Amino acid sequence: MELPIEENRDRLTYWLFFTTRCVTTTYAEVLRAHCEGLGKTYIVTPPQWGALSLLLAQDGMVIGTMSQIRGIDASAVTGIVTRLEQMGLVERRLNKQDRRVIQVFLTEEGREISKSLATVVERFELNLKNGFTDGEMERFYAHLQQMITNAAEISKELGQ
């Protein structure tokens, strides 16, 4: 990745966006390389992995719950689930007690790739933390949470 020009070196927003772009690009590449390495006909993207990881932890979730946990619109989750369904990784089923409720379940292929990707994602995260102590990571998370709180306050002041 390209290093920042001098005028951006002390801009927090620049570093946050730059870091996000670098990490997201590499994350997508790690997922792609793993799927290709297994000879899969599909590539799991980071948003798709987010949905798969939720289902790996608790199979049979409804889209609304997945949306709330991930903090993204239900329509976006519906699109992700549709693509995963087309890839044969999930299936939608009517709830037996309430047929108005549609649950999302991993297929056997979905479960296998999810377990496989979980290991790859864990290794990726460990590599990202390389060089930081546990205490430094705890402080980093606290700083990020404070920035989220600060941004929410700014948004509230703007009437958003």
TrEMBL record:
The keyword Chloroplast does not apply. It comes from the Bacteria. This is MarR family winged helix-turn-helix transcriptional regulator. Residues 9-149 form the HTH marR-type domain. Pfam families: MarR. The keyword Cell membrane does not apply. It comes from Cohnella boryungensis. Keywords: DNA-binding, Transcription, Transcription regulation. PANTHER family: HTH-TYPE TRANSCRIPTIONAL REPRESSOR YETL, TRANSCRIPTIONAL REGULATOR, MARR FAMILY.
